[in-house]
Amino acid sequence: MESEKYSSADFLANQGVPVVIDANHAISHNKVMVIDGEIVLTGSFNFTKAAQESNAENLLIIRDPALAKQYTQNWDAHRQHSQPYVGRGVR
Description:
The protein is of the alpha+beta class. It is 31% helix and 22% strand. The chain has helices at 8-14, 49-53, 65-80, and strands at 19-21, 32-35, 39-43, 59-63, 83-85. It has a 3-stranded antiparallel sheet with strand order 2-3-4, covered by helices on one side. β2 and β3 (39-43) form a beta hairpin. 4% of the residues are buried.
């Protein structure tokens, strides 16, 4: 969340990872990775240390290029109305 004192977006931006903010929605609650255009990882898993070590999470691995394409198209649609985020502490 851009409004937090220091967010994950800042961490990523400070490491040189391009970050965009979708201001059309209050929060992006998706937990999805598309790998190589053919594998979809999705579920409750937040890709955090707490999720890995402490929480009861689920993760589904789907090998389906057609489904991966749909997830990618959804991401692209949100990317089109998002704005670049430089982050705090980036020089």
